[in-house]
């Protein structure tokens, strides 16, 4: 405690708060969730709890997308990629691949051209790689003072890959001209 008082007295507020936060005891992970204590069983509980079934039924796998595609005529320029990356929020959690927006920002000027070709080919061939579409779902506690062993006290957060977020940033401005939303959708 004397070290904290000394830092505070000397005006070292950054060091004071860093050392203070180290002293705070944070609650650990719950021993069990939904009656399960094994991490794999807990993961399966969350998997089934957060699973959403499509009302449209099962998707059909298309083996030859070129035969079934419509001519969409969408291509992307390196300027589009640069703008999408520049507009993205920094410091967000990465997806399953571990890449963040900062990786793309510091990848050099050629990344914009490479990604423009990649995304244009994806749209042109009506194909999105599985790893691009994969998300990591993380359970987050709704009420920290509530029952941590109850799976209903968690909400899912989906962490998409940065490549999917950039693609989304490219498509959003384009589809807004075709989609009409109402005030009840916000």
UniProtKB/TrEMBL annotation:
<protein>
    <recommendedName>
        <fullName>Reverse transcriptase</fullName>
    </recommendedName>
</protein>
């Amino acid at each position: 405690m004397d070290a904290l008082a000394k830092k505070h007295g000397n005006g070292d507020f950054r060091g004071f708060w860093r050392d203070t936060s180290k002293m705070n005891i944070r609650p650990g992970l719950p021993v069990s969730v939904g009656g399960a204590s094994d991490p794999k069983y807990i993961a399966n509980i969350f998997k089934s709890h957060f699973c959403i079934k499509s009302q449209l039924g099962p998707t059909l796998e298309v083996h030859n997308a070129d035969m079934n595609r419509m001519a969409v005529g969408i291509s992307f320029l390196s300027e589009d990629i640069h703008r999408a990356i520049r507009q993205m929020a920094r410091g967000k959690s990465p997806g399953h691949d571990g890449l963040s927006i900062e990786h793309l920002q510091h990848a050099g000027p050629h990344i914009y051209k490479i990604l423009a070709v990649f995304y244009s080919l994806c749209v042109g061939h009506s194909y999105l790689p599985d790893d691009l579409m994969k998300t990591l779902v993380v359970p987050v506690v709704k009420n920290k003072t509530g029952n941590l062993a109850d799976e209903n006290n968690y909400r899912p957060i989906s962490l998409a890959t940065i490549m999917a977020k950039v693609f989304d940033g490219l498509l959003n401005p384009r589809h807004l001209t075709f989609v009409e939303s109402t005030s009840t959708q916000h």
